[in-house]
Give the backbone structure.
Amino acid sequence: MARKNSTSSSHPNDTLIDAPWRDEEKQESYECPECGKDAVRWVQSDIRLKDGTFIPALERMQCSACGENLFDLQAMKRISDARGKKSSAGRSLKAALGDRFKRMPD
């Protein structure tokens, strides 16, 4: 389970996490590639991506200044898996509806 850290963030639901990186790396802040501020830290929180995909308790790096998210390979795998489940659910619905499934007119 993730260990909460008392370091504050502009995102109140985010906490620092225990990840597979060295403790020193987890505690450091890094420069944000988006806004340039030294405010990128490890967090773990629920996230809804721009395409609507929801991932609970996703470990990632996030800028507390601008909100930019940075994903490592482990986070990208969880995102890919969540998107795969989302698209396979749509295919299953289409298969179940068969001929009744019609595309809405443009």
User: Anything to note?
Assistant: The mean pLDDT is 74.
